[in-house]
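Hi Y.,

Following your request, here is the sequence exactly as I used it, all 156 residues.
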Amino acid sequence: MKPVALKSLLLSTFILLTGCATTSGNSAGTGSGNGAMNDLIVNSQLPAGAKINHSQSLIMGSGENWVGRVVLELDQNPNAAYNFFLEQYPPQGWTLVSAVRGKTSLLVFTKADRSATVELNEGGVMGGSQATLTVTPKSTLPPPPAPTPSTQPVRR
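Below is the corresponding structure, written out as tokens. Let me know if you'd prefer a different format.
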């Protein structure tokens, strides 16, 4: 095959593949994409430049009553993202229940009848991070009964 024909073929293939590719998420502020996910953006404060990874996210419901998982690609490093959620969620009415900072960091919040877990991981080569925000209803089941002497395990 002649070099000019090969270059044309490679260029055409590249253009075709680029046109068919999808992005991993939309910018949180663009308003494009899933309507329920955009409602989430309106009602929750997220770090600047956060992008929703729609293919890994699942939301049921809308507005203040949504439940599910939202995977976010963040521009900040995991430490800055951790500080953002730690500082910004309590003023929105969320109460911090538990916090663990490490290679994978976790923050657990509650608010009225809902619970939110934020999991933060390193994002990759560019120094960003990935946050998985999972919001669920709080359990309405009563706590399990305390063990009685007859139900405690026998030690041998």
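The two ends are 80 Å apart (CA to CA).

Thanks again,
Q.
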